[in-house]
């Protein structure tokens, strides 16, 4: 069987990578480059040898290399090699799947080398809840990531680098804004409730932490616990998966020092382009005429000025108004500005530096690191930027031969700043407020606001947030009796957040260039929040076996955690000196000298959980595996009688490859394991920390019906609280298969699962309006999410010495709502039996080109229910139910008129493709990520241009230019009409295909030969170039970025426009001493 | 397991967490201050006042025969106002719940003596809540007529809520509102804060007269149609819970009389509490001119000293602002005064403009229109060349002097929709002219309305004006610098002339008598731009005539001498010689500007028309569906649709029997 391994390679290639882009090339490299390697270099002696495996079979294609040089060869078809080497040279013999051996050459004596199988993949240890486990013995569904996958990615936080790597782990970057952190989700839609959240639990070295606040380069490995069997040990905190981050530790031996740094250049991607000013004005006028407005938005005189300004015969961006001021920018401006280009920079600069040292002696070792990240934002006016400083120190000490101690401290500081006026509404409003005709500068060259965003960004003050996270962790590991190990962990996290903003008076300039006050208010805000969290874990494990066949491991423990949150803020008015915005230097008066009372606020809140847990692992000869978990959990969120809950899980595994009958196959298939699990979990992550308590909403100083000239304190009616509120239950089934083949060159796993979320705290049922208050949320909704995940990885080494690998991750999940309180079946809300994310809409027949065409259509499909005055340029909808009328019936499931399901917004088939290779010091990585199927309905004015909310809620982008008019009858968009949405009904014609593939990362590195760098005392020196978000393939409208559209939000006014993502090039080096 | 159980008990202490920063309802509404804060939380939600980026309450008469916005309104284009499947702002109980929660909690505590504080204050704050429930109910009742009466905070129990969805006959709703106002009058003080920014007894009396007059006149004019309870065509008649309906007063006529008498009584009590603010009859044009208190009342920073103001909202440049003064510097934020309203004003000598010897100078220019007129028109109608600013300051959005009206502006903020614009609500202080940063007070209730309510109720009830009514009328005319001889006006009134300008010349499609008409005219002129016109038109049933005869909303006489104010090449109309998008109506249609007839594609191009169903709002279909016991049969719901409206969504109104 060993005789023709290449044949097997080929078969597997063909099987797995139907895309074909890898099938041919390795073969060619093999064929062409072999002669170059066989030839010997300048040396004196010839060494001969034979390489075999443990069973005595010759190994073909094993690499033989003189240590510390590039001089080498590979074994031939009989396993033989010969090589000219210097006397006494050390040879390194390696082959994929085997442990590399070093042998000293002896002159004239043929070498006999027996390579041992590398069982690392079998012995590989995976971090699981409260412990570790050999991968081969895992029965739950666990995804893993090691440090390599995070290497050299020019990202600001670790979560960004996880996107697409582990199937079923969904990372959503909804904005490119520097402080924005991606949302993390395991296995699809967890909850549609409005009363609870379904985020996974993130634990850093066993203590709850924030994936965004850790230095990515400190990460050793990450485990994603996906099914209930793996995560149930964490009980009520982990119903929707757990992310376990393990950080690097020191190792015994020489001190290793590493420094690496990178410099980055970013450019915004997917920026909308605005129409030129004249096109814009005619577009808005067309919409006004179509709406039968009594006057167009831009008069003939105004249009003429716009045109003259464009062709240069007019040089002032806005005419003089009355009173010596410039005229109103919206009413009279004739500038020609693309506000997106004006507001965002073309490129920006960032850098990251990382230093780490580790090492240790016999009884003690350490790891320490420092990291600095500086990220500049894209704001052209004002400044936005993000800095992160982290330090980590870790000491492991062996106190006695039965006790170990570990102490870790980790400090992270993030500094984020932005112009005070750069809030999320800047992005959502820029399209509708940034009319191309609106002057950016007045004719004297001063920024001009009437109002427009640039002046506020440039001069309106800054908003700075500083967040400090300090983690302290101490743990003892005691093993008084062999195999009885007790862990005592205590960790404490303190988060301090300080936010400052100042809002400054703004000045416009009049016609003679003199400044005058435009915005009179100025104020300073200081807000502080301190979160204190502690976590106790005590657990003990004992492992034993009976007759070397029955292996047992029992574990039991207790956990408690507590969080206290304290917030306060103060805002004072009247900054005395513009450059000194502090509360002490405010006058507490307004511009006119009236006293303004400063506003203050403060609150405290807390929550806690406690739980007992136990686990039993059993296996028979590593062949049959079983694991039982139990967790008994209590939470402060519910009252005592509803507080405690028991969560069991069971998982079974069968290592088929260890069966006697499998031995004949074992040469090809190294590992094959079938897994099964079932578990029940509860969710206590209610939005409110006190969901069972009613409270009066009391607010100081917010009542604007002034009394005695001052704001009033107001109180509001308390919301209703359901008396029966209790735990959500999550039941998960999982079946999985793991395999390793061809010396573990081909590895992978496949999981299929069903997760039921029962008694979810869903949206409240609809009740008659006579109630007069929001219906209280109760446990009234069930969801069923089912999906599958596939991870396939191939890695090999070519005879030329090139290592390469390809990893494909692919996951799919869909969610069905199996119970929902919607008695009338209205389509305005969810209903039982609904596929989550479905989009209801009309079928579009097309745009009528003539009145005849429209009239003929209307005769058979009356569209009165959708609007009136149907003319050419309007949309013709299909009468699907043949009642000669186009409408939505009662808009219910039983009477939905001509509506039908036209798509689904759930992202399906999310994939990642990771290609890696290294050769002679060069390394290469290419990583694609995407979504293969998804529909998206874009309802906001950004998509439509002219909207049904009139001219203040409309935009003119280049795409909108293709609207229907007499001289552009074959248009994409229908005729624009202010204040009318008859053409903008949810419909097939404008449904977007939001699938995409994005080249997330491409990097090339070169490690200088050790022989060279060692002369400088450097053991490793790597240079690299890395690019992020380099290319995107999508058929979606270019108005949006397919990544930043939100998943389920279909709010019509919300524009879904975000701070753009960036394309980033990074140049860096890494030095290890 | 035993150990586990004991540890669990220990843990429970650790897990017992109570809210640390919120107040639980059990501990609230127990002090005078609590009651006040709860009241304060509802003021802006329930009471009308200026909102920003508009002409505030002065624009609330848009879409009537008095004022016209840039775009037409669907209620005058039958077929375009459609039933909605879901709607959550009209059939709306949120504030009713808030009021009920307060009253049901506080009244028991108050009676048990469990509320700490000064008794008078506690009583006053309870009275405010009765007032707010009444005001909120009055809004719903105007939209729907028959409406559920709910006096307790209900629980989230579907059956109970369906039961509570039963629509009470409109007169019973009105009686309920009046009883709440009686409670409010009983509990409240007069002007407790000395500043008139808190709800008070006088406001409750005024509101009571308004509500009673509304129901009294409604029943009178809609008698014999589906719009009054007990009628054969009344949609409520099919509901078993209405099987025994009778009018509490015995018959509909006695019911009408009861309401009108209530209106008179409350109005008279209210009128006794204040005096009218004086009027110089002149627009102040320099700092040395005498100020005109009557004009300033609508645009002063502090309204507490204006005797006629019963309740107002205070604004502050830092704390809460609006845009009304800026709107009044320009074209009233697109809300123009109609030719109809302008023509309705009398001459100062008391004669209608068409009467012989009136001295009417015509409407070729605004200066002619203003000359020798009722001072309420000559003061408030802006004329080009007048000063809009007398006291300089920092605000940037001022216009001085008043320019020729910008009738073609594409900006709704600056457009003069009809060519006519008001300075009511304006201020001569430049400091008030920051964009969205005006802080003049907003009048909620003004005493003059009590005079008008009394006059009208008195005439409707008795058919003549009693001495009190006569004195009120004289006082109002005297204050307006109009000849106080109203009989002269009545004698010179030609109803066929008035019918061209004033929808209020009609009730139920018939012209009313000249005395009643002149009472209505007084009301129209005095309460111009104060947000009550559409309410009046509905209760008078004053739009039936437009079911058959369209009405053209017109503005100033553009195609007359005032054309000289414009470069005629910038005025583009359909069928005219200038090219470009039309921005004015054609002179072939009318010499006067017709804002909704600029483009022939406009659905209001043929004029405004009416359909009877529009007197009430349609109920969202989902409200009927969710209360139906059989969802395939909406008649199983206790909620019935209003006359003429469909029980299917997206349908325009149909006809109503008898119209």
Structure, explained:
- The complex is a heterodimer of chains A (1073) and B (659).
- Chain A is mainly beta and 1073 residues long.
- In chain A, 10% of the residues lie in helices and 44% in strands.
- In chain A, the strands form 11 sheets. Chain A has a 22-stranded antiparallel barrel. A 5-stranded mixed beta sheet of chain A has the order 10-15-16-13-14.
- In chain A, helix 6 runs antiparallel to helix 7.
- Chain A is globular.
- With 659 residues, chain B is mostly helical.
- Helix content of chain B is 36%, strand content 3%.
- Chain B contains 20 helices and 6 strands.
- In chain B, helix 7 packs parallel to helix 19.
- The termini of chain B are far apart.
- The relative contact order of chain B is 0.14.
- Classes of the chains: A mainly beta (1073), B mainly alpha (659).
Q: What labels describe this entry?
A:
heterodimer, A: 1073 residues, mainly beta, 22-stranded antiparallel β-barrel, 5-stranded mixed beta sheet, disordered N terminus, B: 659 residues, mainly alpha, two-stranded antiparallel ribbon, 20 helices, 6 strands, 3% strand
Rg of chain B over CA atoms, rounded to whole Å, is 27 Å
Range of strand content of chain A: 35-45%
Distance between the termini of chain B: 81 Å
**What pattern of helices and strands is seen along the backbone of chain B?**
HHEHHHHHHHEHEHHHEHHHHEEHHH
Largest interface: A-B, 106 and 116 residues
Question: What would a concise description of this structure say?
Answer:
The complex is a heterodimer of chains A (1073) and B (659). With 1073 residues, chain A is mostly beta strands.
